[in-house]
Structures are given as C-alpha cells and as structure tokens.
Amino acid sequence: MLNTLINLLIIFALNVFGTCLGNLKTTFLAQKAIKPVYLTTFIDAIIFVYAFKLTTNSSGYGFVLAFAAGKMFGVFLGSMIEKKLAFGLFEIDVYKHPVQGKILADTLREQGYSVTTTMGYGIEGTERLILRIILPRNQFECFHKMLAEHGNVNMSVKSITKTYGKVGGMNVHAEI
User: Fold this and answer.
1) What count of Cα atoms within 13 Å lies in the side-chain half-sphere of residue 62?
2) Which of 8, 51, 63, 73 has the CA that lies 20 to 30 A from 142?
3) pLDDT single digits (tens) 42-67
4) Where are the alpha helices (DSSP H) in 57-97?
5) Are residue 117 and residue 70 in the same domain, yes or no?
6) Domain that includes residue 126, residue range
7) Residues 161 and 93 in one domain
8) How far apart are CA 139 and CA 111, in angstroms?
C-alpha cells in the first residue's frame, strides 16, 4: 500500500516537472531561443519515459489519473513560471495627442526608455503622436502602471524576438 502511494506521487511529480519543462520549451521556441530547448527536451524525454514506464507497469486507474493530474498541474505551474520569467521583448505603440505625447515621450526618455515618435492621424484626420517603445517583457507591468499616471492611454502591444540597437537604457543586440 505504501509502495503504491509512493509510486503514485512519483508519477504525479515527474509529470508536473516534465510538463513544466515542456511549457518552457515551447516558450523558448516561440522566442527563438534554441539553445535551452535542447536541454529541456532531453530532460523532458527522460522524465516522460520513466513516468510512462511506472504507469504501464502498475495496475489500476489511479496510476493513469496520477499521470494525467501531473500533466494538468504541470501546465498550470509551467504557465505561472513563464509569467514570472517573462522572456522576450515587447514593441509597444502608444497613441497620444501631440502635446501630451511629447511630454510623455520626454518623461519616458528621462527614465531610460528608448522612444521613437512619429506623427499619425486618427478619426477625421485628428493628429496623433505615436510613441514606439521596445522593452523586455518582464518590465511591462511597471511600464503599464507608469503610463496610467499620464491619463488615458491607447496602445498596441506586440511580441518581438529580435532588435538591434538601444533597448531601454542599454545599447545592445537583444535576441531573447
């Protein structure tokens, strides 16, 4: 009985860990960070084979449920880890009226953000200043709160994988 319970917990834990690695592998692939994918794939394969072997050599539906529950909890845990790590870069376009936009752009530059501005036109030809900012994804929450202090802000956010030049306060080649 104790041996069965230990095997159930092992199967569950292995699948949680293996599925977390699988989620991270997908994130790395989406961000075109290939080197970590090799290691995560190798470890995930070993874990999967061992957990599958334990499940097939056992009897009862409990082992299948432990296998499936481990996969399910692994997806949940993997997504939480991915949100905390926040790999990648965002390209953010902020749309403001020209006077307010210039003030916001200067404020962002003073805080170390790389900001490019262009003039655009909204509904009925209304002038808009478009501020384009590239920043690491893990800085987005702080950036978004800071923007909220400058009133109503319309923006679009895109994930990008590469940039050359200045990102934030550093002049680097960034490939996440």
Assistant:
1) 11
2) 73
3) 999 999 999 888 888 888 889 999 99
4) 61-85
5) no
6) 89-175
7) yes
8) 13
